[in-house]
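A favour, since you know our structure tokens better than I do. Would you make up a two-line entry for one protein for me to read? Write everything out right here, beneath this request.
=====
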Amino acid sequence: MKKRRRWISIVMTAALSAALFAGCGQDQEGDSGTEGDSGTSERMTLELWTSNRDALENDDAWFVTKIEEEFDVNIEMKYRNEGSSDYVEWLTLSMAGDDAPDWFRDQAIGLTTLTDYVDQGLVAELDPEMVKENMPNYMEWTAKYSDIFGDDPLSLYAVDGKVYAVPDAKVDLATFCLMGYRQDWLDNLNLTMPETLDEFTEVMRAFTYDDPDDDGVDDTYGYIGITGDADWAFSPIFAAFGTYPGIWYAKEDGTITRGEIEPETKEALIYIKELYDMGVIDPEWMTIDFEQAKNKVISSVVGCSWQNWGSILDPAGWWSPLKETEPDSGWAVSTGITGENGDLGIMQFNPLAGVGLVFSKHMEQEPEKIEKYLQVFDAIAGDPEWHEAEIWGIEGETFVFNENGDREYTEEYASEAARLEFGIGAAYRFPSLELFQYDPEIHDAIDYTAEVNEIRAGTLEIIQGKYDILGSFYLPIWSDVNAELPDMNVIFTEMITGERDIEEFDSVVQEWMDKGGRDAIAEAQSIYDERYQ
């Protein structure tokens, strides 16, 4: 195979600067974009965007070469900038100038930004039938996860009834979070993992006052949340009362609401205050962030919190450093606490991050190129062998299967630098960044060990909860009134600590409704009905 040179574009400030291009199969006279000895046909050039500058300089990246050969195209690697704010700034400037990319796909691009681009005439309108025809794997995937995408995924982010984006999702985020209890503490106290609110109260009391770590020192607490915001901190407790403050969600009858205004939230606050007054909640809960919450867990200050399943259970997860200081430690997990009415769950994360795949306006003049992009993206995303190739490379050369049946890199390619030089890894992903059409049932079997996949399968059997179903949409009224509404997180904190009477809850909700919340709910209902019903 002859050595190839591709366009290499580096973003310096607001624009892309072009570099020398030569096509695969270029002859001595410098002809480019063709192949073969006679009757040559021009190869289409597709853009691959990467955030890794070193990858740009790798003229013979194996995975990129594989794409070119399999799909009879040239790949032009370009630098897509890093960091969401820097990327959006660069993209907006590029879109408005002469250097607009063929396509973009980034979680930082939400419906508000997409709508702005549409209003400015910067993005291409897509024919839904073209997408369906050229992306059969995508259509099957969205049908499989219709609870996330609805029955008409291509209309999910439509603007004025027209399609400009191919929606994408990280579908595992909808079933992502669990509660974790120190199993060794439960064992030391002859307790079992709590299921009901009464049992939870008793376990939290014992974790705080009965020396669960057997060190003779009164230095533990039962519970802490994962941030200082009351809605996040106490999500499993709120859910036990059937409410999810802080997010938009649909009730069983299809009515859209926010948990902070539901009457069950008041009942939950009364219970949380009882725990607070008992002293079983770490008193620093109001000021922590994710990192500080993790440190509380791995330093054995608290015996119960919640997080994503990988942080708790993956041997290399966020909470795994606990094993270094407490080798006998372990975690019992549950989806939450069962309330008196059978309610339980935890706030999950919205899998619809960003609007998905979008093409720039100039691509309307090249529909055949859009079709080619759709075909290649769909083929790569829908075939697990392509994912294995991207991450692991070539069996017997860059990776082997060990005695447990798990993939592992060979000694020569054990370092990330060696793999980058060979030309495999996320730096060469096509399309870029997060996996496109991510399907845990397919991709996780390739990415993780059998042990981790077995753990994950177990969590899927128990995880329940809700996520912000409108978190990916632009709600103009909500955006306008939100800052003027009572800050419910502050108020809830004051009620839990006794600075404010919980009996004021109903009047606070009324104030929330009167100051614009009522109109925001009506707007949210309308958008939900339009997109999902």
Summary: The first helix runs from residue 53 to 56. Residues 122 and 361 are 5 Å apart (CA to CA). The chain has a mean pLDDT of 91.
